[in-house]
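Schema walk-through. Below, the input block comes first and the output block second. Nothing else is stored per chain. Lengths vary across the set, and this one has 1484 residues.
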Amino acid sequence: MTAPAQPKKIVAPTVSQINAEFVTQLACKYWAPHIKKKSPFDIKVIEDIYEKEIVKSRFAIRKIMLLEFSQYLENYLWMNYSPEVSSKAYLMSICCMVNEKFRENVPAWETFKKKPDHFPFFFKCILKAALAETDGEFSLHEQTVLLLFLDHCFNSLEVDLIRSQVQQLISLPMWMGLQPARLELELKKTPKLRKFWNLIKKNDEKMDSEAREQAYQERRFLSQLIQKFISVLKSVPLSDPVTMDKVHYCERFIELMIDLEALLPTRRWFNTILDDSHVLVHCYLSNLVRREEDGHLFSQLLDMLKFYTGFEINDQTGNALTENEMTTIHYDRITSLQRAAFAHFPELYDFALSNVAEVDTRESLVKFFGPLSSNTLHQVASYLCLLPTLPKAEDTTFDKEFLLELLVSRHERRISQIQQLNQMPLYPTEKIIWDENIVPTEYYSGEGCLALPKLNLQFLTLHDYLLRNFNLFRLESTYEIRQDIEDSVSRMKPWQSEYGGVVFGGWARMAQPIVAFTVVEVAKPNIGENWPTRVRADVTINLNVRDHIKDEWEGLRKHDVCFLITVRPTKPYGTKFDRRRPFIEQVGLVYVRGCEIQGMLDDKGRVIEDGPEPRPSLRGESRTFRVFLDPNQYQQDMTNTIQNGAEDVYETFNVIMRRKPKENNFKAVLETIRNLMNTDCVVPDWLHDIILGYGDPSSAHYSKMPNQIATLDFNDTFLSIEHLKTSFPGHHVKVTVDDPALQIPPFRITFPVRSGKGKKRKDVDGEDEDTEEAKTLIVEPHVIPNRGPYPYNQPKRNTIQFTHTQIEAIRAGMQPGLTMVVGPPGTGKTDVAVQIISNIYHNFPEQRTLIVTHSNQALNQLFEKIMALDIDERHLLRLGHGEEELETEKDFSRYGRVNYVLARRIELLEEVKRLQKSLGVPGDASYTCETAGYFFLYQVMSRWEEYISKVKNKSNTMPDITEVSAFFPFHEYFANAPQPIFKGRSYEEDMEIAEGCFRHIKKIFTQLEEFRASELLRSGLDRSKYLLVKEAKIIAMTCTHAALKRHDLVKLGFKYDNILMEEAAQILEIETFIPLLLQNPQDGFSRLKRWIMIGDHHQLPPVIKNMAFQKYSNMEQSLFTRFVRVGVPTVDLDAQGRARASLCNLYNWRYKNLGNLPHVQLLPEFSTANAGLLYDFQLINVEDFQGVGESEPNPYFYQNLGEAEYVVALFMYMCLLGYPADKISILTTYNGQKHLIRDIINRRCGSNPLIGRPNKVTTVDRFQGQQNDYILLSLVRTRAVGHLRDVRRLVVAMSRARLGLYIFARVSLFQNCFELTPAFSQLTARPLHLHIIPTEPFPTSRKNGERPSHEVQIIKNMPQMANFVYNMYMHLIQTTHHYHQTLLQLPPAMVEESEEVQSQETELETEEEAMPAQADVVPDKATDASSSQETSASETETTPNQIRASSSPEAIPAESEITGTGPVTVPVENSTPHDVTSTPGETE
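--- output ---
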């Protein structure tokens, strides 16, 4: 098996190339946005560009990229388009630009929406061009471009403008393209359709002839396109050379067909047309399929099309078909064929009288129909309405092969989809891992099409939804597995030994050579299956490695996945590995199979089980692991060995590879999806259609739900009645009590509930009254019953003054249905989430809520806030491995909660003992929960009832206040509470206190009753299961944990009523869906009542490593984003409290009216300026340093030394002014730059106490969800904008800073980018050189925006800044030294007081002395992440660790090596008065 050649990476043009291009010169003349005086529109420009730039370069992506980036479509093509100027070049140019936008994943239709008038005409021209003769005006390559454009149109049905045009091509009238007999048959099947058909005919008759002709053209478009495709397909020869244009056209056509079949609105009528044209039969018999090389991708696409044409769905109703219904359809087809045979073809009697199971295989059908003549076969097909009737005395024009295949493929028995899935191995093998059409390399450019499913807006059925996600998830993990295998195996350096065997010249941490491999068990298959139930094998390896690596191998746990690999290298010992050449032939890789660890074997050959007891220590280096192999794969391999004589794969393995546990959960997730597809997965009725993308997107909003709740207790949500009134603008608030003193929270609110279904039209008089009533809220303040006399009995309260949109989100979350909350940065998403959880907990104490987040960090933030609210901690439970990072002494994991329950039980029983003693009751009531229960019933309750009967108000007498206290039976027990317990002010107050005391006592016994189970269940596992299933009310986990553990949770009988998802826009579609189904349905219905999703689709989506899956398959689209695209109503939070208002303006244009909370203007930290810096945000232009801008030592590992040094210099400057280092974070958009900056920080700042280290140095993507006061951001790129063109990344980058944001970038590149204009226009409005105020210390009293009293210095470039920071540092050292000297001359008493100061100074002094003392030593040339730019030490006499600024006259490269750990040598001609090479004495 040979690995395909690596696809070429598209190199983005540099700024200088862009400026030199002919296109750019034209752009500057005609349409560039920054040019004020533009030349008038000239159609010839479009013709010239199309002919000279696009066609001449054969549609080179580089040229099209340049054009699209220069805003050619927005500012020239569409702006000036009209029917008068429309031409071929014009049409093609627009199509190329739209296709390029889709390739780049940027919004494509915005321009057309702004000026929609000419779109219908334009679209009709495209349809006409797509059907034109290929040898005419349009070449086949151009028509392939048009096909791609049409595909994008069909996939953009959510855009009204597109939908209105496309709908005419795919509605019922398109059945005009069917043969008359087939049309009759279809109309007969569904009588309702005949009515519609007659109506269509009537309407057609009313049209004038021109309009009718136009309508007929559109309806027949797809039928004619299919005929055109068939003619192109037939022109492909079997073995002669073929132009790739034909192949690409055929591939794109099949892709278009798949996309039409995979969406219900397009499939509904089109599937019949496709079936009637027999495209599949033509394709499978074509020469292209038989061409090994050129037809490989075409065949894969064809299989996908075949899958979708026979999909298990009723095209008209859209309902999924069950196994039985599919069988019925199959039987109907065969029996109708048998009836036709019986009636008209005596030679087929045997066939007609056989039973179905005997004749429905391919072999038997060929046996019966093969001997018939072509004419007879044609007649059979025409009886079934598959072909037009054959006129008498004429021979058929179809060849026999086609007619036979048509009948056989239509009537052969199919394996059901679920059966195919169950027989599919879950682990990828070498055939899939290195197939470029299925798992493309990371260099996927977006040009060709691929044999991959796409995730769009809509899916056919839940089965289709799960299947597409299953396939993509499997392939995405396959891509990661490929990277791991290539990395590990190439590190092991397999070479061919002299005797032809394998010798390993290297070693890998994650892979080991196999010493022995034996299959030890192949269990019998289950009934009805043909694969074994399990296959187990033993793998022996020799762990002659370092201890910590040995521990990692021995620490492999049950269910960890490993890969067994066979390599047979052909290269001799010592051959170098070249990562740029195909991997497989270099290492001679032959087989890859997955396996799952069962455990390591001990000395006696038994599996060592995971458990609390310590593992036995084994002697020697040899270790054997028992592994499970994939039974499906084993069965396929063995069948292949027996039937085809292939070698036994399982006797050849010589390498075993493990993977990092965090990345290795793919098999569990795939099994979960497969299990879901095998069960009747019950999604709540109110969600079903929305998940598939159909119906009314707002149907699950609480206002339309039939079970809306009228009265809700908002508990501590509102801080006062005023807060409540401002929270419902436009509503009339009616409070049930008039006394303002009683209008205090908590409040119950009764909302006017409308029935969910549409209202009937009312008469005009009734309307006002209706709206008035609909706007009235009835508010009832209520008092929380006293909980007891102790201070800790007081409930914890919310202190946040929620805004009215936050209140709307909380209200929606409390109501049943789907709630989507869009939370821009800093708008309090977590606070809203926590309040919703708390309110549901208090309103519906019997319901259980599941919290799901993307990361452990978010889950922990949520938990910390939940604990601050009035929620009993015994009801909280956290599943998964992240609870260790919770910043609390309490342990919320399963075993932590079990321990809490046991400890709490003992505490409560102690309280019972104290109560028993205070009441003077003999015996041992506090022995167990059970005895405590009896004690409460017989001793406590009786005393309380007696007390109540004495003090309760007799109807005629005035109650006596003193009695309340006098008769109270529990005085002695409450002696340790704050005294006096009874205030004696009023009878009501004292009575409430007495009842509060009793509630306190009663709660002890209620809890003990709940804890009784832990006395009965003895093992920790049982107790933890009981907690999970019965006790916990709020259960939290990450989405990954939910996917991994679904099987276990369902088996336990886990139940929940509500789901709240945080960070929902960062979770993969399938990982969002699985948590909905972690429980078994009750009586065939899901008990899920609420689904609350909180996220922000304007920030970064889930991480997909492979570009092809991310772009082509749209796998990065989260369910949250898809719902927003479909039109599900959202609550958009609209007030941020994180950043200064000026910083917020850099990203608030992306959101619906995002404003600021009042404190952003009021608090001093937001109104004070940033000390030492003139502006609160600035874009700083960084030019090439030593002639180099961005560099790329490895593919996609981008670095920019100039920016990295500049960022670090500004960081050091801020620290020297007094900024706390942990308030500054350094972000960048690329991993390469992150490593380079970390390297420079280590060298420059090290552990220097004067400077310190920044809070974080990381990438923008990693920092999502976090924030800091000051952010320094490096954008790295100088040639192409790169992935910052994704506006979501820009939003994240701009919204991380609270008080100051300083961006380092090549301004000329980024200001031209259309998508980034709103942010960059604000950034470029300020000066592009850094403005600093070196004499202003931190913190400053200067207000933001004020002119400073100190002098402002302008920094022109990075070497100047580096030089400046160095001098500033030296000056600081000298002043501290001088201060230290004066201290030594003070009288003794003063010195004692200042001892602490002195010790710090001594530290600095030694450091300062160390610095010049080492200046003469030049160490070995170090290598660092910026190795691509190293200059030799001898050339400049500086080490590569330094800034290498000696080329610029105003800077000294003595970048100070500020820690004093490195050398600083300066060429003499560049030295300045502060020359670093001076002796220690001089410096002092």
